[in-house]
Amino acid sequence: MSYRLERDEPVGFGIRRVILEQVDGAIESLGTLDDDPAGAIHDARKRTKMIRAAARLVRDAIGDDYAAINATARDAARELAGARDASALAATFRDLHEQRRDSSDHAGMVAVASALDARGRAAEQAVAERLPHVERARTLLDQLRDRTTGLAFGDEGWDAIEPGLARTYRRGRRAMRAARTHPTGANFHEWRKRAKYTRHHLDLLAGAAPGLLVPLEDEFHRLTDALGDAHDLHVLAGQLTDGSLAAVASDRELRDVLATIERARRERELEAIGLGRLLYAEPTGRFTDRLGRYRAARAR
User: Fold this and answer.
1) Torsion over CA: 291, 296, 299, 300 (sign)
2) pLDDT tens digits for 140-168?
3) Residue 231 domain flag
4) Tell me, what CATH number does 293's domain have?
């Protein structure tokens, strides 16, 4: 089944089902690590984020179990970190290189792209060979399955959903304002994390009004993509200035590449701000009331 609460499905049953499906999917992906390390790691880590988002949506209803589920899913993802991060940086830079292939800094871009691709492949291979880390991730996912199976809900219906939905959306609005006021890499990254939770929440709730909420979730996906690219470019700029990529090109070439990265990062940040002004235009209460009415109407 999909990452979505079905019509007439009790909230507790639906959340347990969604989390268990993601746990089993992550374990299945790790079983394909030898065939496709990058794909397996990416899928498993993506699923842990979806698990955390589902738990966050019903945080108030599940009480102390939230902290345990969130920490276990987070720790499982951390066991697989490194390879995915290196691959993501390489992919972001490769896209930038394709877009700016005719620019004057082409030689430097080629050198940096080659170095990042090599890092990504090495990191993937390293994780594939670090069997203790993979086994710890599997163990944590098994623990997560056991914890979820016995998950009890203090509330059902919209009362189980609304507080978590409101909290994440409100924090996203605040994070957007912080990024606009103080446009640091850390502030944009924080906004991305909050926006991604709301994006997953909309995915979970989209069955209430697919014609309205699926396009809205798509727009939040565009927002998180823009913020994700901006973050990757911020990290890449740091690697160019801290010397970790200094040996791959001349100083002049690296300066030119850095200027290209900084322009692209700012473009993506401005794109995110434009999207955010629209997506966070509603006050929190109005946003959650609207989604609550959709779900109530769908249940009739």
Assistant:
1) negative
2) 999 999 999 989 888 788 999 999 999 99
3) yes
4) 1.40.20.10
Domain count, the chain: 1
The answer to whether 148 touches 16, Cβ cutoff 8 Å, is yes
Tens of pLDDT, residue by residue over 24-34, are: 999 999 988 77
Please name the residue that has the structure tokens 């959340």.
15
Q: What is the pLDDT of residue 256?
A: 81
Where does residue 231 rank: exposed (0-12), middle (13-18), buried (19+ CB within 10 A)?
A: buried
Which residue matches tokens 């939040």? 220
Q: What is the dihedral of CA 158, 159, 162, 163, to 10 degrees?
A: -170
Distance CA 30, CA 149 (A): 21
Looking at 21-25, 101-105, 185-189, 276-280, which range is the least confident one? 101-105
In a domain, 261, yes or no: yes
Range 123-145 burial, b when 16+ CB lie within 10 A, else e: bbeebbeeeebbebbbebbebbb
Residue 6 DSSP symbol: P
In a domain, 6, yes or no: no
Q: Find the domain containing 261 and state its range.
A: 11-299
Gap between the Cα atoms of 269 and 263, Å rounded: 10
Residue 217 near residue 210 (C-beta atoms within 8 A): no
Taking the whole predicted model, whether its pTM rises above 0.85 is answered as: yes
Angle between helix 131-149 and 65-79 (nearest 10): 160
Q: What is the mean pLDDT of residues 103-116?
A: 70
Residue with token string 């623990």? 143
| d(C-alpha 141, C-alpha 72), whole Å | 7
- Within a domain: residue 28? yes
